[in-house]
Amino acid sequence: xxxxxxxxxxxxxxxxxxxxxxxxxxxVDEGDFVILSGYSGSGKTTLLKCLKPEIRPTGxxxxxxxxxxxxxxxxxxxxIAKDIGYLFQEPSSQIVTDKVIxxxxxxxxxxxxxxxxxxxxxxxxxxxFGLEALLDKNTSELSGGxxxxxxxxxxxxxxxxxxxxxxxxxxxxxxxxESFINMxxxxxxxxxxxxxxxxxxxxxxxxxxxxxLFLKNGEVISxxxxxxxxxxxxxxxxxxxxxxxxxxxxYYNQKGDVPKxxxxxxxxxxxxxxxxxxxxxxxxxxxxxxxxxxxKPETTTKENSKLKSVIxxxxxxxxxxKNSNDILKEMTFNVNESEVISIVGANGSGKSTLxxxxxGSYKAYSGKxxxxxESKLMxxxxxxxxxxxxxxxxxxxxxxxxxxxxxxKYKDEHPYDLSGGEKGLLAFLILVDSKADIxxxxxxxxxxxxxxKQLLIDYIAAYKADNKxxxxxxxxxNFAAKVSDKIAMIFDKRLIGLTNPKDFYKSNIYYKxxxxxxxxxxxxxxxxxxxxxxxx
Length: 536
What we know:
It is built from 19 helices and 19 strands.
């Protein structure tokens, strides 16, 4: 049975001379799992919000949206509030109360649920989501992963028929992201709830998805079942939207079926990569082009000794007040001038706090923190550093010279009208204009598509070349692998494992890039998709 139908949907924002989405057609059956993907700024969020009348943006809308074969806008607001749930990207933005148990009750109270029904819903969903131990906790004390689980559970208290998820794992660490995705899969299969899931990272959803829809410049460029939609990306020359599985399959001349899972990709690589590697060795007279990490030149101890250390922490401890627990402890590490360091770790592990400690926003109560030069911090929410109504009014010649194409494209836009990825690029360029010696970036790649991430990597490399230092807190393991000279992890409030990307991912079990996982026991030195292609 068709639960959602979109016919020729077009939407434009006020005072814009282009359509945010154009002639969108979509049919979703009850119980479907639909992946919505596309370039950043292509209209994914706009489309989802058009399907949820309470949060539909102001603007001109044409076309038809039907829910259960009736016009969506003909339904009572209370019915749609219950039937269609919406989950935002930023976990904390959807939390409205102080306690977990109050958050679970909030929506039901607003819709007039009876007390006994509310208690039963809270009881069963707390059990289903494993939230029992958190019920009396303050919502402010939850990690990002716990917040997003709570948000999802709160939506389910209303027993929705359709869930709209807008990049819900963009702010989550790899472990929390995996747990969230597994829960969404359970909800779809065990409860039969229809799901439309917007994301740039869809590889882990292919095993459950029924349909895919890809957007570019507000228009559908590919849709259908997963296999058909993915193949269409090749035919329409949109491989930047493809996942690693499809690109590698295409690289190996489309042998067999498109691998849907990591195991299927590993099977393809076991067959093809060894053949390619053998041929490469023969043709290059046994030159090592496969296992050497050519993107990260090795430096000797003597060379390292000549580098100026600009960030020095020695046995530093930090807590928010003297009666609270330590957030960071035994922090000891150095960062050299012209280095890019990425810090990974679980939600709530202290990554953002560490950036604040380096920036001087926080002070260690014990130990030493020595920073040479000026530092600037890019927060997780780029909007916090937007101070003007036009992009062009926030950038000077220095930033413009670094990103002339970005400036030309967006100079007359209001910064709040940009997509999430575009906001991140703008925020970085604003910081670049400060010409600070050290840039501290908190989750800078969230919401970015593949092309935007590469732009950010290029911008960072150009800034680094001017003897600048960059420290990044991120959950994006692939981004960290590409941009970093060294990577470390925060665990048990300490920084551990600071080393080059190859050794970092090679020695890990879970905190590995997707390619590093796929190449396990094939070539453990390979952790990036580009390295596979370079081996041929």
